[in-house]
């Protein structure tokens, strides 16, 4: 396997740190530049932009591969939801699938919110994780039409307040969107949400659900695994 850092003068540790800071936290490119400057690392924000575009998808693939190897994703219940995203003033839609534990399974960007887009999103997610036993959605008719096409219509649930898990999963993306001053291209949005979802899953430990000692142990393990994945 070729070394992805082969032709870079900067050490892999610094590149990993810059990519993690930019993707994981609601920071702008210039924020990351200033934080690294305080640590004695002199780079420009355009370098940070190049690094995350070059290495972000590679790190995300490594995280997904490790998750599939170490965990059997449960198909007990999926929560699906979509939000409006503006790209250069034009409305687009970000679809997101979340499992019952709050991990983002997949994110998909489309120009329309119709049956065709919902069907493409469902097929893309099911190809990776298989068919779920229950699918929780809002009352958007596109979901029912798409699931009827797949033959999974009986699994759909649309009760009130039942889909809060998917709606809450959009909050981290909204914070990143504000820090980045929104998105300027369809391709950049799709690329970023895919990378952001994987890295957010890796470092999200639900600290409110476990004792402090357990949280610290999980956090240390996540950082150690990140060094191995991004090595």
Tell me the β content. Answer: 5-15%
**Biggest sheet details:** 5 strands, mixed
CATH class category of the largest domain: Alpha Beta
Adjacency order of strands in the biggest sheet: 3-2-1-4-5
Number of distinct beta strands: 5
Distance from first to last alpha carbon: 12 Å
The general outline is: globular
Q: Give helix % range.
A: 40-55%
Mean pLDDT level: 88
At the fold tier of CATH, the topology name of the largest domain is Nucleotidyltransferase, domain 5
Which key terms come to mind for this protein?
231 residues, alpha/beta, Nucleotidyltransferase, domain 5, 2 domains, 5-stranded mixed sheet, 9 helices, 5 strands
Condensed summary:
The chain has nine helices and five strands; from the N terminus they run αααβββαβαβαααα. With 231 residues, it is α/β, with parallel strands linked by helices.
List the helices and strands and how they pair.
Elements (H helix, E strand, L loop, with lengths): L11 H13 L4 H10 L6 H26 L7 E10 L2 E10 L4 E7 L4 H15 L5 E2 L4 H10 L5 E2 L6 H5 L1 H10 L6 H18 L8 H18 L2
Parallel strand pairs: 1-4, 4-5
Antiparallel strand pairs: 1-2, 2-3
Helix pairs in contact: 1-3, 2-3, 3-8, 4-5
Written description of the protein model:
This protein has 231 residues and is α/β, with parallel strands linked by helices. The protein has 2 domains: 12-71 and 205-229, no CATH class; 78-184, Ribonuclease H-like superfamily/Ribonuclease H (Nucleotidyltransferase, domain 5, 2-Layer Sandwich). It contains 9 helices and 5 strands. It has helices at 12-24, 29-38, 45-70, 115-129, 141-150, 164-168, 170-179, 186-203, 212-229, and strands spanning 78-87, 90-99, 104-110, 135-136, 156-157. A hairpin with a 2-residue loop joins strand 1 (78-87) and strand 2 (90-99). The longest helix is centred in the N-terminal third of the chain and has 26 residues, at 45-70. The mean pLDDT is 88.
